[in-house]
Design goal:
Helices cover about 75% and strands about 0% of the residues. With about 110 residues, the protein is an all-alpha fold.
């Protein structure tokens, strides 16, 4: 059926465009600087470690390097999430500011 084939092609093209947009967004977010982004504070890190070391087997001090690596990864994920929030909401702030500037000029 040609209509079914055309629908499948249209769906494939739309899916490709969505996937490319998502990949581009993730690329931009991953390459944003994280130097000025706040990290998890000491209290949050201590609560995470306390909850993670809930069982007796995990209280062993030999897993400290792995725990530190996991905390570092959590900090990177936190910074990436903060960058994503900034990136997604920044155009809205700029549009609102431009709209306010245009309104004040009138």
């Amino acid at each position: 059926d040609p209509e079914l084939f055309a629908d499948r092609i249209q769906f494939a093209c739309e899916s490709l465009q969505k996937a490319q947009s998502r990949a581009q967004l993730n690329f931009f977010i991953d390459n944003m600087p994280i130097d000025d982004i706040q990290c998890l504070d000491v209290d949050q890190v201590s609560r995470i470690l306390e909850l993670a070391k809930n069982s007796a087997a995990l209280r062993d001090t030999s897993i400290e390097p792995a725990a530190n690596d996991l905390v570092r990864e959590a900090n990177l994920d936190f910074a990436r999430t903060m960058n994503k929030i900034i990136f997604i909401h920044q155009p809205l702030v700029n549009k609102d500011a431009a709209r306010d500037d245009a309104a004040s000029a009138c």
